[in-house]
Amino acid sequence: MAIQNPPVSQTRSFSTVFLIEMWERFGFYGMQVLMVTYMMKKLGFIDTKANLVWGAAAALIYATPAIGGWVGDKLIGTRRTMVVGAVVLALGYLMLWIPSDNPTLLYGALGVIIVGNGFFKPNAGNLVRKIYEGDDVRIDSAFTIYYMAVNVGSMVSMTATPWIRDYVGAHYGDAMGWHTAFGACAVGLALGLANYSLMHRTLAHIGSPADEQKLQLNRVLALFGASLVLVLVSAFILQSLLAAKICVYLAGIVILGIFVHLIRNAQKSERAGLIAALVLTVQTIFFFIFYAQMATSLNLFAQKNVNLSFDVFGIHLFNWIPEQYQNLNAIWIVVLSPVLVAIYNTLGRVGKDPSVAAKFAFGFAAVALGFFMYGFGALSAVDGQVSSWTMIWGYGLYSLGELLVSGLGLAMIARYVPARMGGFMMGAYYVAVGISQYLGSVVANLAAMPENISSPVESLNIYVSLFNKLGFVGVACTVIALVMLPLMNRLSRSHAEAHTPLPAVHSEEV
Q1: Is 45 in a helix, a strand, or coil?
Q2: Could you please report the per-residue DSSP string of 383-451?
Q3: Which of 1-10, 90-99, 330-339, 479-488 comes out lowest in average pLDDT?
């Protein structure tokens, strides 16, 4: 690695990654918050097709970081790959800025975004790990702040892009409103890249060995060609729901086969940890099926069955745009994260910090209560519309579950999987999460609206039926997780006896 003279502080290096991550998340969530309703209201997709297209895109978005991490480590370098990812993402949002209602352009733009995300996400996180490598005291704080970057960027964009769409649409036409909102995502990435260009020297000494090597033309051309092929393949999968379904189920079979193969061929001392990782990975897949409802069924529920007025004791405060309710997830994450950290630290000091498996069980219980909250709110609905406060408390419980399950996913892999399999299993974990994103869109389609239903009273019953079913599934997941706790504790003890425990690795939502 290059040596800085004078040396660059960890804080300055971290700030560079923090800011580009914040702007990248601004772009991504600004796009995500509008995508399903854009497909329905502008492209004429029915709700089932819009849900499945976004589910397939989300699956690929989660899967491609497994490839991008390898590109950064072995091919062109961690820093370079992160920057390339940001540029490619900006190109994808620029394509969405083009005022066209052609679905082919949408599929191509999503394909570009999928590839860009694959390059950016794993390498930005890897740079943070490398900045604080060997500094166990500060790395926890760094990743806590880094996770905040994700939520700060998403909070701003999920509030801004629906407002931009409505404002521009009201003054310059509906089509211009949608595409300008997507254009704002590209502007966010441009700001992030401009900031990085000013601060990039603070990362000159951070990266993988490939960052210090001169770029080889044959590698660059091969990467460009492979990326173009992946864009085309992704676009094909998105426009063919049958192809998406086949790819998802094949990926599921492959991942299960990989786990079985690794467990059968692992050393005896490694099997307990791998079995524990398999059980928790399956539980994580179930959680992300719930998580996928945010952009699909919960989003569409807000469109039809939520009173958009925020009132306190009969006093009107403000109105929200339906898509902006997805922002509640990020707001609650920011509010709840320090509370959970304080609880963990307090319990840890007295030796009572719950195991990862126990936290998963608590997380499923919170998610179950969150979905039941929507049914509870429906009891006092007026003309088929529930109070905005129903959404606030439902998202609050849902977000608590996310912190307890999703926030510990990669930490679980780091803890239980042997180091020699770590990188491979991280990739497999992300692919598994991608599968669950698609399955979540399939579940959301259980609340598909028949063409003859337009009354909010009728649609309320359909959505509440789905949410209550999800609540009961959450209860079942909680019971299963609790029943399996003794087994998980035995596996954890067996693993700990055979290995020096690894430090937890903070994960972040892709």
Answers
A1: coil
A2: TTBB-HHHHHHHHHHHHHHHHHHGGGHHHHHHHHS-GGGHHHHHHHHHHHHHHHHHHHHHHHGGGPPPT
A3: 1-10
pLDDT digits (tens, 9 = 90+) for 236-258: 999 998 898 888 888 888 777 77
Instruction: Provide the 3-class DSSP secondary structure of residue 295.
Output: coil
Contact status, residue 85 vs residue 123, Cβ threshold 8 Å: yes
Cβ count within 10 A of residue 119: 29
Which residue do the tokens 């996400």 mark?
121
CA dihedral sign, ordered 32, 33, 39, 45: positive
User: What amino acid occupies position 4?
Assistant: Q
pLDDT tens digits along 15-61: 888 889 889 999 999 999 999 999 999 999 999 999 999 999 999 99
* Cβ pair 498, 272 in contact under 8 A: yes
CA dihedral 74, 75, 81, 84 (to 10 degrees): -170
In sequence order, which ranges of 201-326 are alpha helices (DSSP H)?
Answer: 217-239, 241-265, 268-291, 297-305
Taking 60 as the threshold, does the pLDDT of residue 476 lie above it? yes
Residue 353: exposure state from Cβ atoms within 10 A (0-12, 13-18, ≥19):
middle
* 161 Cβ contact partners less than 8 Å away, ≥ 6 residues apart: 30, 31, 33, 34, 181, 182, 184, 185, 323
